[in-house]
Amino acid sequence: MKKEFKVERVTKSEKSGNFVTKLVYETVVDLDILGMKPKKETYYISAPAEVKAGDTVELELGMFEIVDRPYVFIGEYDEEVTVSCKWLHLK
Fold first, then answer.
1. Are the C-beta atoms of residues 29 and 39 closer than 8 Å to each other?
2. How many domains does the chain have?
3. Distance (Å, whole) CA 7 – CA 54
4. Residue 64 pairs with which residues in a beta bridge?
5. CB of 87 within 8 A of CB of 67?
6. What range defines the domain where residue 12 resides?
7. Tens digit of pLDDT for each residue in 1-46?
8. Residue 52: what are its φ and ψ, rounded to 5°?
């Protein structure tokens, strides 16, 4: 199934020269009596072509292996924070 993702951020990698692109797919889920709840799916991909923030990209997720990788950064109170980022790798 193809999904239309919004490009949220693009950063050029100094190491590879590729562009690391943050892609977001937003939907709304009906939770019946609890109401409607927004849902976001966020993925990252490294690619040679640069796209602009705000652009849309249509992708077939079945073409990719989704790989979870931890990302560590220093938080607001100087604490170490680890989040899991989902990367798209071509199969």
1. yes
2. 1
3. 5
4. 90
5. yes
6. 2-90
7. 799 999 999 998 888 889 999 999 999 999 999 999 999 999 999 9
8. -105, 145
Q: Report the alpha-carbon distance of residue 33 to residue 46 in Å, rounded.
A: 40
pLDDT at residue number 1? 76
Q: What is the CATH number of the domain that holds 74?
A: 2.40.50
Query: How far is Cα 84 from Cα 7, in angstroms, rounded to an integer?
Result: 19
Name the DSSP letter for residue 61: G
Predicted confidence (pLDDT) per residue in 39-58, tens digit: 999 999 999 988 999 999 99
- Amino acid making up residue 51: V
Quote the pLDDT of residue 15.
85
C-alpha 26/C-alpha 41 separation (Å) is 7
Determine phi and psi for 53, rounding to 5 degrees. Answer: -55, 135
